[in-house]
Amino acid sequence: MASDEDHDPSGVERRTYLRGITAAGAASAVGLGGLSAVSGSTQQEAPQQNQPPITAEFCGTFVPGPQVRQCIACVEAQEDCDEVSPLFPLFTDLTGQCFTPDEIPEGADYVTLKAGQFCYVAPVEEGVTTFCLPPGSPDISNATFYECDSDDPQPALMDFKVTCDEITVTTMNIDDGTELTAEVTFLDADGEESTQTFTATVQNNTATFTLPGDLNPTRFILTLNDLVLDDQHVVAQDAPCTPEPPDPPEPEDPRIEALEVTCDAITITTTDIPVGETIFAQVTFVGDIVETYNVPVGADGVAVVPLPGDLDPSFLQIVYDGDILFNANVQAIDAPCAEVPPEPPKPPKPPKKKKKGKKKDKKKDKEKLERKKRAYEKKKRECEKTKKKHEKGRVDEKKLEQKRDAYEKKKREYEKLKCE
């Protein structure tokens, strides 16, 4: 898949973007002046802050599924991280090469940036508020913060399975008997959208939501009280759920006469758009992958958007001359397009150790010592904050002891490595 721009002999230009492009960024990037602003954090191309931004390192290919799981292997591979716990809120609908959150979650040790189908990881350091990708990378689609060896692991969604009849979720750190809520968007055979809300109770880290069975699920949002655990475009493994594959929703703009969506292409039949004019089609695929295509209108008034074939299109926006002509959920008539279930790529392998002699790699030793130092200093700050809260009666003795033990553990690890 292209990371910047591909030129096709048919005249189609393809560029990788994210679901949600800021109005200013879209106009400068691909001429999508009519796109609305996203609800994610503001992105900066030239961030202004006290400390220079950290450049995240490429660490592998994402794993399909919930956001917290997509790039978690990158954090699990870190030497100073035994147990990994995701932190909230999750950051979605991002764009650009740099990510500047309004606030970094307390206790964060690492952040992962998902860009296209790739993952990047960066340490969270005091005073640094912006994280960027290496030059030439796809744009950022989501960001997730993680804490190592947390004293208070957060609830999380670790896996899900979607069929016509049910959505089954696998959870972590959620007690049995806890109720979860799923808001699901459906398409019927005529392309009419509807949204329904379902509840299910967690038992043994699993909860199952019963669906109507005769509607096509296209998106679901999972919540625990007011906490959003995940927000995903989906397709049922046994699609279509309707007797006939769903048509796209009826276009509101008369310049779009008809739409056909398959795994391999989107065919747009237009009226009153001159031959040779360019239509911009932004396609969101299951897995939070978004591409924008510049498509010329042919002599017959038809514009064809070529698709990868092995990704499921789930949302389509069509823009012409600054006007949004179509903006709705879609599903390929031959869905599912991806392999079912998708084969998750192998997590990145740790670097191989050199076998020659006992000569130490001073650079790696220094980097490891720095990581241990950061972890120790972080636990120290947390312990000091908890001690002040304890003095004010805001936390109990047990919580203070947990923070003190965690601090002492990291201190011993750092001092041991320092003496080697």
UniProtKB/TrEMBL annotation:
Stretches with biased composition (Pro residues): 339-348
Feature: compositional bias, Basic residues: 349-363
Compositionally biased residues, Basic and acidic residues: 393-420
Recorded superkingdom: Archaea
Record-linked InterPro entries: TAT_signal
Entry coiled-coil feature ranges: none
Region Disordered: start-end pairs: 337-420
Record protein name field: Tat (Twin-arginine translocation) pathway signal sequence
